[in-house]
Amino acid sequence: MEFTKMQGLGNDFVFLDRISSSAEDSAEDYPQLARKLCHRQFGIGGDGLIVVLPSKVADARMRIFNSDGSEPEMCGNGIRCFARYIYDQGLIISDPMLVETGAGILKLKLFIKEGQVQGVQVDMGEPILRADLIPVLGEGEPVIGQSIEVSGEKYLFTAVSMGNPHCIIFVEDFSSLDFERVGPAIEKHSLFPRKTNVEFIQINSPREITMKVWERGAGPTLACGTGACASVVASILNNRTERIVTVQLPGGDLFIEWGLDNHVYMTGPGNYVFKGNWLGL
Ligand SMILES: N[C@@H](CCC[C@H](N)C(=O)O)C(=O)O
């Protein structure tokens, strides 16, 4: 089975190209494939599986599966890699590029130099702030400064959805955080009926934050695009930053703007790692 491995700031994905497949989704068990292909020892290794599919309403359709086989609505780092992949395959029909995702049809702008995609800006749409739509058990819109308890310790969080749910917690200093224990406990906390991604944020200045992420269905990753967007929205809602922010992640920087049109714009890279044939069928 042919595959391409790509990464956006170290958030890595196995790509399967099903753009010309007429069987489409029906024949393949993507959740099981995701678990096998993403396995770091027995498979190719990745935080997720991305399937490139045809679309009737956009240039192409992206499905993403976490390494545990669950299917989230969206993936910010994945969609930048996806854009580069379909550009290189000559599959773009529109400008801006349109990609159908579980979070709707998103518009993407490609930065191209000498025929090579140097970076991608994604219009991530409007953040979802209503508790019942995120979803989080809580009141109101937005959900700011709500308390969550993990093994007797209380944390204050802000909840934001970028199509997928995020729980954002501001910390003074990462060294005092028991990330490996608190991250998974919040991911599966009963306050989040569809589980959640968890972002811990340190504010460096009104234009720069540092983020550590525990992803739903994948655990610790080097970057999360939707998480960076949700974290900037949370930082602005909490009056901690301005509207244009650099997000420092373990895998590199993302540039996020929450525009006055209420849309969130994410700019960053998408890169190839290698192509190959998976023989583990
Ligand atoms: N790494 C991604 C998000 C992938 C999905 C996430 N784990 C979820 O379950 O919602 C990104 O870059 O946004």
Automatic annotation (TrEMBL):
Keywords: Amino-acid biosynthesis, Cytoplasm, Isomerase, Lysine biosynthesis. The active site is at C75, C75 (proton donor), C224 (proton acceptor). GO terms for biological process: lysine biosynthetic process via diaminopimelate. It holds the Pfam family DAP_epimerase. It catalyses: (2S,6S)-2,6-diaminopimelate = meso-2,6-diaminopimelate. It comes from the Bacteria. The record marks H166, E215 as: Could be important to modulate the pK values of the two catalytic cysteine residues. Substrate binds at N11, N66, G76, N77, N164, N197, E215, R216, G225, T226. It is found in: Cytoplasm. GO terms for cellular component: cytosol. Catalyzes the stereoinversion of LL-2,6-diaminopimelate (L,L-DAP) to meso-diaminopimelate (meso-DAP), a precursor of L-lysine and an essential component of the bacterial peptidoglycan. Belongs to the diaminopimelate epimerase family. Homodimer. HAMAP family: DAP_epimerase. This is Diaminopimelate epimerase. It comes from Desulfosporosinus hippei DSM 8344.
